[in-house]
C-alpha cells in the first residue's frame, strides 16, 4: 500500500474563488446530478441523493458519477472534504471497464482498503476513445467509522483529486498507488441535490429518463374521482410570462380577445404576491426580485428556486421569466437589429412604431436611484479613462440606439422607481385590469393538443381540470412564449421538430403517449440556428474602485447598514441599481470582411480571478467583453432522454473570425490599461497572453444567457415560424419569444424581444382567422 495523501492545505494557486456545484443532466441516462467540472483536468464529479427522511435517519446512499479524459489516470473524491478520517473513493479505467476502490486514512500513511460501502456500477458507465465515465450507486456511503456527511447541508465543501500517474496494478482494486497529483474543493448544497424516491429508485436500478416525468407518474393510492370540470375555452392561450408572453398577452387582451396566460412558475415581485425576501428586507414588501442591487445574489443563493430546474443553462421559471431575474440592462433596438441583413423578413424592418410603443410603456433609465443620483461610479470613471484615449465618445446610449461604434455611457435599465419594473410592473398590470384576461401561475404546459395542423388547446399538469386540458374557442390560437429552451421543448413534445428530438419524447413514459401519431409529426429545424453572445471577463484593480465586497453580502447578512436603510426608506442608493455601471460598443473589422460589434459591460467585483500575484480584492472590477451583431457562430439546443433542455452544440466562437475578432477586442482593452494610472489587469495576469487566456477559457462560462434562434423566423423550408410568427405547417400555433429572433442585436436582448413582441401581437391580430 503506497497511497500517500496530501494532508496540509496547499497554497491556493489558481482560482481565488472556488467553484460551486450546479445541476447538470447526464445525456446518456437523464440523471440530474449536482456537481462540478474541474476546469484544469476537465473532470466532472456529480452526485444525487434520495429524498431526505421525513423522520429518523436519512438514507445513507447516493448515485455518483466521474467523467474524465483518459489523460487522468485515476480520479477520486471525499464528500466530507477532508482526506483524513474520511471515506475516499477512487476509480480508473482498465480494459474498457471501470475499476474502483474505497479507502480510509487516519493519518498521512498508507490508507487501507475500507470495506462497508456497497458500490454498484450502473449500465451507462463506459470507456471510449477519449474519456472514461463511471456512474455508480453508492450504498452505506454517507457515514463511516469516525465520520459522516450531512446530506441536508446547504454549504458542504467536498474534495476531488486527480492523478496523471497510473495505479500500480490497474486490474486490482486493492492496488498500491502514489498520492494524487492535484486536488481541490468546491461548494455544494447537498440539501438541494435530492430527487423523489421513485426517480431515485429508477436510476439506482439502472433506469434512465427524467425526474420530471417519473415524479408525476409515481403511484398514489388516491380514491378521489378524476376532475370533471372543463376549462373555459378562450381566443388565445399564451404559454409563458416572460417579456415576450406578457407584452403579447397585454396587446391581445387590449384588442378584446379573451386571453389565458399560463405560467409554470410562481409569483416574483411583491406587487405580484411574491414573498421571497432578504433578511434585511423583512417588514417591507420588497422581494429579492424587486431590489436591483440583489441581482448578483441570484447566482450565489442556495435557495435558487427561480431557475428552471429542468434546463441546464440559466432560465427564469417564475412570473416575468428571465425578466424577473436578469440584470435588466435595457437597450432600445437599433434599425440594424431588425434589418434583413440581421435575418428579419422585410415586413419586420419598420420596427420604429413598435419600439416607440415599448418606450412609451417602459422608458429606459440610466439613473435608477429615486433621488436621481448615481452611486458607486468609480468603475465608470476608470473605464472612461481607458476608452477616451482610444477614441470613444460619451453618449446617453438609448438616445442614439443606432450609434454603436466607439461610444460609451451609463448602463441603462428598465427599473422603475428604484425597483425592478419591466413588463411585470407595466404591461401585466394593464392586462390584469381587464375582465377578458386571466393569468394562471404554477401551471406547466406539456404540449399543444392538435389534430394535424389544427391546434385545439394545451395539455397541462393542472389536475383540477379534466385531462389537464385547456381548450381554444373556434378560431382560437396558441402562442408559445416559454423561452428559447421552453418553447422548443413544448414543440418537441407536440410532435414538431427534428425526428431525433421527437424520438426522445416518444421514449418517455409520460410524454410519449401524448404525441400525435408519427404521420402527423412536423419536421422543422427547432433547436438549430441558436446563438448566444460569447463573453469573456477581464478583471482589473484600481485604487479608486470599491468592489462592494464583490456583492457577496448583499442578500445576507445585507449591504452596509446605511445603504440598506437608504434603500428601504426611499429605494435610492447603491441597491437601486444592478451591478453594471458602464457600457461601450465598437465596430470591429474581421478577416472574413464581416463587421462584428464588441460590447463591454463594466461592473464592480469579479466572478473569478486567476493570478499568481497578490491583489487587493476590495479594488477589483470586471469588464465583460461580448461579441454581438455580426457573429456567425451557431449552435443547437434540444432535450435529452430526461426531456431536460440543454445545449447540444455550443454556439460560442465556433466561427474562427468570431474568435479572432473577440481576441482582437480583448487585446485592445488590455492594451489601454497602461494609459490609466494605477490600473492593473489581474485576470489574465502578465504571465498569460490573451490568446492563451481565451484558448483555455471554460466554454460554458462564455454563456451570456442571451439565447435566441431555436424557433427562428424566416422562409419556409429553412425556418420554424413564418413572417407572422406562425409555426410552419400549423393553422393556429405561434411563437413569440426570444426563440424566433434570427440574430443577436447590438446589446443585451430583452429590449429587442419586447419590441418584437409588440410587433408580433400586431401581426397576429391582423392575420385573418382561417378556420
Ligand atoms: C441570468 C440572466 C441574466 C440576463 N441579463 C439580461 C440583461 O441584463 N439584459 C437583457 O436584455 N437580457 C438579459 N437576459 C436575457 C433575457 O432575460 C431574456 O432574453 C428574456 O427573458 C427572454 O424572454 P422570453 O420571453 O423569450 O423568455 P423567458 O424570459 O425565458 O420567459 C419564459 C417564461 O415561460 C415560462 N415557461 C417555460 N416553459 C413553460 C411551460 N412549459 N409551461 C408554462 N410556462 C413555461 C417560464 O417560467 C418563463 O416565465 C438575461 C437572462 C438571464 C437568464
Ligand atoms: C481540458 O480542456 C481544455 C479545453 O478543451 C484543453 O485545452 C485541455 O487540454 C484539457 N485538459 C485535459 C487535462 O484534458
Ligand atoms: C456499512 O459500513 C460499515 C462501515 O462503515 C460497516 O461496518 C457495516 O457493516 C456496513 N453495513 C452494511 C449493511 O453493509
Ligand atoms: C466519449 O465520452 C465523452 C464523455 O462522456 C464524450 O464527451 C465524448 O463525446 C465521447 N466520445 C465519443 C467518440 O463518443
Ligand atoms: C373593446 O371593447 C370595449 C367595450 O366593449 C370597446 O369600448 C372597445 O372599443 C373595444 N376595443 C376594441 C379594440 O375592439
Ligand atoms: C409596499 O409598501 C409600500 C410602503 O409601505 C406601500 O406604499 C406600497 O403600496 C406597498 N405595495 C404593495 C404592492 O403592497
Ligand atoms: C458623460 O456625459 C454625461 C452627460 O451625458 C456627463 O454627466 C458625464 O459627466 C460625462 N462623463 C464623462 C466621463 O465625460
Ligand atoms: C405543475 O407544475 C408546476 C411547475 O412545475 C408546479 O408548481 C405545480 O405544483 C404543478 N401542479 C401540479 C398539480 O402538480
Ligand atoms: C381531425 O381533422 C380532420 C380534418 O382535418 C377531421 O376529419 C377529423 O374529424 C378531426 N378529428 C378529430 C378527432 O377532431
Ligand atoms: C503562474 O505561475 C505558474 C508557474 O510559474 C505558471 O505556469 C502560470 O502560467 C502562472 N500564471 C497563472 C495565471 O497562474
Ligand atoms: C486595499 O484597498 C483598500 C481600498 O482602496 C485600501 O483601503 C486597503 O488599505 C488596501 N489593502 C491593502 C492590503 O493594500
Ligand atoms: C507582473 O505583475 C506583477 C503584479 O501585478 C508585478 O509585480 C510584476 O512586476 C509584473 N511583471 C512584469 C514583467 O511586468
Ligand atoms: C436553420 O438551421 C437549419 C439546419 O442547420 C438550416 O437548414 C436553415 O437554413 C437555418 N435557417 C435559417 C433561417 O438560418
From TrEMBL:
Keyword DNA-binding: no
Molecular function per GO: flavin adenine dinucleotide binding; oxidoreductase activity, acting on CH-OH group of donors
Range of residues in the leader sequence: 1-18
Keyword Metal-binding on entry: no
InterPro entries reported for this sequence: Cellobiose_DH-like_cyt, FAD/NAD-bd_sf, GMC_Oxidoreductase_CD, GMC_OxRdtase_N, GMC_OxRtase_C
Keywords: FAD, Flavoprotein, Signal
Glucose-methanol-choline oxidoreductase N-terminal domain residues: 316-339
Pfam entry (one): CDH-cyt
Co-factor requirement: FAD
Family (UniProt): Belongs to the GMC oxidoreductase family.
Name this protein carries in UniProt: Cellobiose dehydrogenase
Amino acid at each position: 500500500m503506497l497511497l500517500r495523501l496530501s494532508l496540509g492545505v496547499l497554497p491556493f494557486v489558481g482560482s481565488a474563488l472556488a467553484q460551486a456545484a450546479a445541476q447538470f443532466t447526464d445525456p446518456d441516462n437523464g440523471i440530474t446530478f449536482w456537481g462540478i467540472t474541474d476546469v484544469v483536468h476537465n473532470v466532472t464529479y456529480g452526485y444525487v441523493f434520495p429524498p431526505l427522511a421525513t423522520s429518523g435517519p436519512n438514507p445513507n446512499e447516493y448515485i455518483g458519477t466521474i467523467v474524465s479524459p483518459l489523460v487522468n489516470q485515476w480520479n477520486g473524491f471525499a464528500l466530507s472534504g477532508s482526506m483524513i478520517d474520511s471515506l475516499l473513493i477512487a476509480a480508473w479505467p482498465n480494459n474498457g471497464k471501470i475499476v474502483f476502490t474505497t479507502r480510509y486514512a487516519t493519518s498521512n500513511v498508507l490508507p487501507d482498503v475500507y470495506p462497508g460501502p456497497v458500490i454498484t456500477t450502473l449500465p451507462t458507465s463506459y470507456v471510449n476513445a477519449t474519456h472514461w465515465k463511471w456512474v455508480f450507486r453508492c450504498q452505506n456511503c454517507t457515514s463511516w467509522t469516525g465520520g459522516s456527511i450531512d446530506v441536508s447541508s446547504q454549504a458542504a465543501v467536498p474534495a476531488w483529486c486527480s492523478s496523471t500517474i497510473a495505479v500500480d496494478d490497474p486490474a486490482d482494486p486493492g492496488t498500491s498507488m502514489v498520492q494524487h497529483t492535484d486536488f481541490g474543493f468546491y461548494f455544494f448544497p447537498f440539501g438541494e441535490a435530492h430527487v423523489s424516491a421513485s426517480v431515485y429508485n429508477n436510476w439506482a436500478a439502472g433506469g434512465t429518463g427524467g425526474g420530471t416525468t417519473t415524479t408525476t407518474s409515481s403511484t398514489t393510492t388516491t380514491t378521489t374521482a378524476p376532475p370533471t370540470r372543463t376549462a373555459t375555452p378562450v381566443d388565445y392561450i399564451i404559454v409563458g410570462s416572460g417579456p415576450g408572453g406578457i407584452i403579447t398577452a397585454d396587446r391581445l387582451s387590449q384588442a378584446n380577445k379573451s386571453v389565458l396566460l399560463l405560467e409554470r412558475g410562481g409569483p416574483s415581485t411583491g406587487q405580484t404576491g411574491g414573498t421571497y425576501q432578504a433578511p434585511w428586507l423583512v417588514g417591507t414588501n420588497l422581494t429579492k426580485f424587486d431590489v436591483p442591487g440583489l441581482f448578483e445574489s441570484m447566482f450565489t443563493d442556495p435557495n435558487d428556486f427561480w431557475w428552471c430546474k429542468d434546463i441546464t443553462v440559466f432560465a427564469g421559471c417564475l412570473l416575468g421569466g428571465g425578466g424577473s431575474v436578469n440584470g435588466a440592462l435595457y437597450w432600445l433596438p437599433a434599425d440594424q437589429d431588425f434589418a434583413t441583413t440581421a435575418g428579419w423578413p422585410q415586413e419586420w424592418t419598420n420596427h420604429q412604431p413598435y419600439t416607440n410603443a415599448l418606450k412609451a410603456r417602459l422608458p429606459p433609465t440610466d439613473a435608477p436611484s429615486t433621488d436621481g443620483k448615481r452611486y458607486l461610479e468609480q468603475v465608470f470613471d476608470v473605464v472612461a479613462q481607458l476608452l477616451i484615449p482610444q477614441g470613444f465618445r460619451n453618449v446617453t446610449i438609448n438616445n442614439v440606439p443606432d450609434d454603436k461604434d466607439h461610444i460609451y455611457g451609463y448602463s441603462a435599465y428598465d427599473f422603475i422607481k428604484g425597483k425592478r419594473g419591466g413588463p411585470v410592473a407595466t404591461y401585466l398590470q394593464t392586462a390584469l385590469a381587464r375582465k377578458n384576461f386571466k393569468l394562471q401561475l404554477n401551471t406547466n404546459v406539456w404540449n399543444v393538443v392538435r389534430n394535424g395542423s389544427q391546434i385545439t388547446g394545451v395539455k397541462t399538469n393542472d389536475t383540477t381540470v379534466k385531462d389537464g386540458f385547456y381548450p381554444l374557442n373556434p378560431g382560437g390560437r396558441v402562442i408559445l412564449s416559454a423561452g428559447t429552451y421552453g418553447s422548443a421543448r413544448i414543440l418537441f413534445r407536440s410532435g414538431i421538430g427534428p425526428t431525433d428530438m421527437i424520438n426522445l419524447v416518444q421514449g418517455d413514459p409520460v410524454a410519449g403517449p401524448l404525441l400525435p401519431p408519427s404521420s402527423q409529426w412536423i419536421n422543422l429545424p427547432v433547436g438549430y440556428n441558436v446563438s448566444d453572445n460569447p463573453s469573456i471577463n477581464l478583471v482589473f484593480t484600481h485604487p479608486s474602485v470599491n468592489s462592494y465586497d464583490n456583492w457577496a453580502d448583499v442578500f445576507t447578512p445585507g449591504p452596509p447598514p446605511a445603504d440598506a436603510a437608504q434603500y428601504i426608506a426611499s429605494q435610492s442608493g447603491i441597491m437601486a441599481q444592478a451591478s453594471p455601471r458602464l457600457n461601450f460598443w465598437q465596430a470591429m473589422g474581421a478577416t472574413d470582411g464581416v463587421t462584428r460589434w464588441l460590447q463591454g459591460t463594466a461592473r464592480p467585483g469579479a466572478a473569478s480571478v486567476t493570478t499568481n500575484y497578490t491583489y487587493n480584492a476590495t479594488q477589483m472590477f470586471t469588464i465583460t467583453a461580448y461579441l454581438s451583431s455580426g457573429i456567425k457562430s451557431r449552435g443547437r439546443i434540444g432535450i435529452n432522454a430526461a426531456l431536460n433542455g440543454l445545449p447540444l452544440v455550443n454556439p460560442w466562437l465556433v466561427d474562427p473570425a468570431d474568435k479572432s475578432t473577440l481576441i482582437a477586442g480583448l487585446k485592445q482593452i488590455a492594451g489601454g490599461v497602461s494609459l490609466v494610472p494605477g490600473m492593473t489587469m489581474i485576470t489574465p495576469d502578465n504571465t498569460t497572453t490573451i490568446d492563451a487566456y481565451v484558448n483555455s477559457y471554460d466554454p460554458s462560462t462564455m454563456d451570456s444567457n442571451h439565447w435566441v434562434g431555436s424557433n427562428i423566423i424566416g422562409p419556409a423550408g429553412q425556418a420554424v415560424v413564418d413572417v407572422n410568427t406562425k409555426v410552419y405547417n400549423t393553422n393556429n400555433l405561434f411563437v413569440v419569444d426570444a426563440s424566433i429572433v434570427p440574430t443577436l442585436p447590438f446589446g443585451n436582448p430583452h429590449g429587442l424581444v419586447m419590441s418584437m413582441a409588440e410587433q408580433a401581437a400586431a401581426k397576429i391580430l391582423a392575420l385573418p382567422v382561417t378556420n
